[in-house]
Amino acid sequence: MANRQALKELQTRLAERLQLAKMQGIAPSWLAVEAGSKKYLFPLAQSGEIFPWIGIQPVSYTQFWFLGVAGLRGGLYGVVDLAGFVSGQPSVSRNELARTESRLVSFNSALEVNCVLLIDKLAGLRKQDAFIDFSVRAPDAPAFFGNQYVDINGASWQEINLQLLAQQVHFLTIAA
């Protein structure tokens, strides 16, 4: 009798947890980065490894935002300056001190893109509860922009859908 009651209580608790999970949904989480003077959010499911700044071999006759190629973990990756790509303007040169904070963020291997994004600074991980407000993508914003979020300090964070970015013709066309 006691076993039957314990089993019934367990089933009730499980049903309540499942219902709560359905109502709450899966909360998004991001890798927060800074590039240029902007703050960006990369969905964790679309982000790959994070590498320190390393020597990049320049490639001639490419867009200004395509910095060259780098050998990372035995693979050859194209290196894109995120700030330059998004703004459409060449980024300022980074000195040695700035390069110590710079990182190369790869795309998730499932996206099948041998590319890394140069960012100026990692800002950690963020969940949805770190933000107090958001606005949906403006109609004139790039297709790879997602929502824009505002944190408790009033800073704006632009979500970047890495999967959509990897499919953009402009992103894939590195020739100058």
TrEMBL record:
This protein's source sits in the domain of life called Bacteria
Q: Which InterPro entries does this chain map to?
A: CheW-like_dom_sf (IPR036061), CheW-lke_dom (IPR002545)
Gene Ontology terms describing biological process: chemotaxis; signal transduction
Boundaries of every CheW-like domain copy: 27-171
What is the official name of this protein in its record? Putative CheW protein
Species name: Polaromonas naphthalenivorans (strain CJ2)
